[in-house]
Design a protein that fits this description.
The protein is of the alpha/beta class. It has helices spanning 41-56, 75-84, 101-115, 134-142, 195-203, 242-251; strands spanning 5-10, 13-15, 37-39, 61-70, 88-93, 119-123, 146-156, 159-166, 169-176, 179-183, 207-209. The protein has one domain (5-251): Rossmann fold (3-Layer(aba) Sandwich). The strands form 2 sheets. The chain has a 9-stranded mixed β-sheet, sandwiched between helices. The chain binds adenosine monophosphate. The site of adenosine monophosphate (AMP) has 23 residues, from helix 1, strand 4, helix 3, strand 6 and helix 4. It comes from Pichia sorbitophila (strain ATCC MYA-4447 / BCRC 22081 / CBS 7064 / NBRC 10061 / NRRL Y-12695).
């Protein structure tokens, strides 16, 4: 008999993807003051996929639980998740503390246990630190099968088939629940939350806890030495003919 799905969707609050990040004065990271923050786009795709699984498979999904580890303000993205279709949420409030992927994975493992989740759908990477580690580490800690870079997910009973995007083609995997899936860009196009649902989500309760409530001690192992902008590109020149182009390329020994 197929089991009901209890899906965990971890979502991270990051600088909005449409904003060009600026490096801070001390070259230790990006400037976060006065900048718009949103849900990490790959997490939005993970949430959308969970909602579609729920909508397309009557009675299959018991619950979609969204969780975020971050500052109190990460409540905003959890409210957005509720407005889009998540059933419940947890904020693990860590204030302004940086939390490396291994610590995020340790916290998520505890949330999986607490929520009795049997499927985790999360982003392939957070666009702020581009780590691309959390899903893999979580699968390792849970000892669950994982499928990364999903571009298609199909669930039949306890069996999950995932098509993965790989260089120059696709790779189709099948595993039994419980499992971890990380989402790629082409899996789906996330919906916008409707205004009535945004209003309703404002009234829904949000669970707020600390990492210590889950018995996780956040111990970072990495030290950021320097964050730098890429070198400025030099202006190009215009040429009037192909001959001139060839001669210029010869001058700079490009041909
Ligand atoms: P990363 O390994 O940091 O590139 O992140 C990959 C995915 O892990 C993200 O798309 C999220 O789904 C999840 N994740 C990473 N950090 C957090 C966080 N602080 N809170 C919730 N989910 C996170």
């Amino acid at each position: 008999m197929s089991q009901k799905l209890r899906i965990l969707v971890p979502i991270k609050r990051v600088i909005d993807f449409a904003i060009k990040p600026r490096i801070n004065k001390n070259n230790t990271g990006v400037e976060t003051k006065g900048v718009k923050f949103s849900m990490n786009p790959f997490c939005d795709i993970a949430l959308e996929e969970s909602i579609r699984i729920k909508e397309n498979n009557k009675d299959l999904v018991e619950k979609i639980h969204a969780a975020s580890i971050g500052p109190t303000k990460a409540q905003d993205i959890l409210r957005t998740a509720l407005a889009k279709g998540a059933d419940t949420t947890t904020l693990v409030d860590v204030g302004d503390q940086e939390v490396e992927p291994l610590n995020v994975a340790k916290i998520l493992k505890k949330i999986v246990e607490k929520e009795n989740s049997n499927l985790v759908i999360l982003g392939k990477q957070a666009i702020d630190d581009d780590s691309n580690q959390t899903g893999q580490m979580l699968a390792g800690l849970l000892n669950w099968p994982q499928a990364t870079y999903a571009s298609k997910v199909q669930i039949e009973g306890d069996s999950v088939t995932v098509v993965r995007e790989i260089d120059g083609g696709s790779d189709t995997l099948r595993a039994k629940l419980p499992m971890v899936i990380s989402t790629d860009l082409r899996l789906n196009e996330p919906r916008y939350a409707s205004l009535p649902n945004i209003m309703k989500a404002k009234k829904k309760p949000l669970e707020k806890i600390k990492a210590s409530d889950l018995d996780v001690k956040i111990e970072n192992r990495l030290e950021t030495l320097k964050v730098e902008e890429p070198p400025q590109r030099k202006a190009g020149i215009k040429v009037d003919s192909v001959d001139e182009l060839i001669s210029k390329l010869k001058d700079i020994k490009a041909i």
